[in-house]
Predict the 3D structure of the following.
Amino acid sequence: MTPDTGEPPLDRHSGGPPMTRTAMPSGADWAAGGSRITVHGRTGRHTLFVRQDGPAGGPPVTLVHGFPTSSHDWSLIVPALAARGHRVTTFDLLGFGYSDKPRRHAYSVLEQADLVEDVWRGLDIGDTALVAHDYGVSVAQELLARSPGRITRMAWLNGGLYPDLHRPVRVQRLLHGPLGPLLARAVTERGFRTTMRQVLGRPVPGEDLHAMWESICRDRGHRLAPRLLRYIDERRAHQARWVPALEGYGGPTLFLWGPADPISGAHVLARIRRRIPSATVSELAGPPAVGHYPQVEAPDEVTAHLVRFLGIG
């Protein structure tokens, strides 16, 4: 891989030194707290990495990660939710993190939703609160379209809820294009860090970016990006179901949003406020404003908002 200094940049909003924040646990430490289980989707059996934190009898909450990373993104959020009595379920979606990464698979948001439902079934989880970020918001929209009654409350972090407002960065557009499979072979940790710093509003420690990269490149997972990025097309294909599921959901709803996100930032909030006026909107405006990864950039703030929103029972 191309070498990288690992030094976080100066805060690009204020021009001052980086803000301090707690470092994430290593990927190995995060993985040690979970296990791999076999689940069933429309293309057959797959093995996913799954964690359960908190008391088994606590009110369930399920956290769904985004592209291109893994459940490790939630590692600074989970302990506080578990300590407050929630039964917290996290997992790596198919093609991500410590889960199976079949090479020639036709990855689909619909199958990811199948697999989430089978995780719930295998763990005897019925109704659950749902928290979703990025790619995970599409999985959550599909789950809402199928069974809105089982979702007790819904929290959304930055993601492409409305396909026409989604603004992928240049590397995503290239990987999603005809040369994507060739370009994916050339992706390096240095390139990943560069892209991340384009979408982050607050600096993230270099060791955290390295742990995120490790989850991506595990089992050469970075080469799957062109296949996984087909979710961009699925968003358009299924928006007639997914947008009404989003806007018509009757349970408590929170939008926990980083406005400095160039992909799905402040420009999405204007529509959310207009279309879903009953929802709670928490804009992480700082200063400095949060970008595309609220749970990684501002874990303490995200935790505080989620604790208040989820409550107990």
Notes: The domain at 28-310 is CATH 3.40.50.1820 (Rossmann fold). The longest helix spans residues 109-122. The chain has a mean pLDDT of 93. The first strand starts at residue 34 and ends at 41.
